[in-house]
Amino acid sequence: MTTVMTGKQTTPKKKKSGGPSVIKIGLIAGGIGILMVIIGVLAFTSDQAARRTPFNIDPYPGADEWGTADETNFSRSIFYRIADVPPEEVVLYYQDKLNQHTGDSGEECVRFPQTGSMPLDPNNPHAIPYEFRCLFDNSGFQTTQYTQVRIYPGYGENTGRTVIEYQQRWTP
After folding, report:
1. Which residue range forms the structural domain that includes residue 133?
2. Separation CA 36–CA 13 (nearest Å)
3. The dihedral sign for the CA sequence 83, 88, 89, 93
């Protein structure tokens, strides 16, 4: 008995699922990951570079720059003075600036001493009876950048004026 086969034998074809392959998805995800790392590194580097300069605060309107003292390559003091405006009025301006900087977080300019005056040393011509300090801190991850504003009444030939001193520090 012999059997004759007629017709063609066909192998079934694989049906396409219509979606992207696992390899394509992996390559796309890897590309996005690498792009995110690059963007993160650039943002971090930019943030660090921005903190390598003094943090400047607009001076009190009408205040005249009186002088500067560069202490190091990454710290300095700038002095301003203004006539006929008491320190208590000047500090209100800087408190408003501090509120803008911190987003009304409750940070406040502080008076030293809180009330009254410090005893003045007659042998120290630079002694001041009181001062206000406002700290504008813009430091970040492993960086320092701040300006402390000191506000105090003038003494000696500057009696009747208010002195505003910016003590600035930043990361070199």
Report:
1. 64-118+129-170
2. 41
3. positive
